Give the backbone structure.
Amino acid sequence: MKSVKTAAIVGMLLLAGCASQPHKANEHQRQTPLTKAPPGKVSQAWSLFTENAAHNYGVDQKLVEAIISVESGGNPTVVSKSNAIGLMQIKASTAGREVYRVQGRHGQPSSSELRDPVKNIDIGTAYLKILQDQSLAGIRDPKTLRYATIVSYANGAGALLRTFSRDRDRAIAMINTMTPEEFYQHVQSKHPAAQAPRYLWKVTTAYRTI
């Protein structure tokens, strides 16, 4: 436990070394000045925890780190207006509750759990795994699956799949006829949520720089 706490402190100190600038919050974040760390610094700060979680759930570590970079800038204290908490901006009543359900646990994570960087990353990574293994199951191209996971993390898999068809299997089949680039452009032009294309771009850009 001591080593975990030490690693968390080291991560926060690494981020504290970044230049502090007013951070323009996205739809998930509170509009207050935050330290905005570059993706590479975020990755360095939290790599011990992201590596463990990614290994445990079979999820791309860089994807986890890119989402952390966009969602919180690596700041574990961020709480949004809608009460999304911590590094991966998890809402206890939605993603948190779904992770608990799949893990056979009752209820949902507490706010204190979600403020814990280790637990926040674990729950967020578990949720990514749920998206990939359930709602997005059947998408064959790894890059397309990554794009679909990013969009689904922010706006839900249902909203994404309905841009293709109301029938999930048909939607997946239609996605599999596309190249990753065609899927990316589809999201940019067809997704009903205005923030979805921006979020996909932001996380993809962060992913490429890690």
Remarks:
- Residues 155 and 196 are 7 Å apart (CA to CA).
- Confidence is low (pLDDT under 50) at residues 16-34.
- The longest helix spans residues 39-57.
- The radius of gyration is 17 Å.
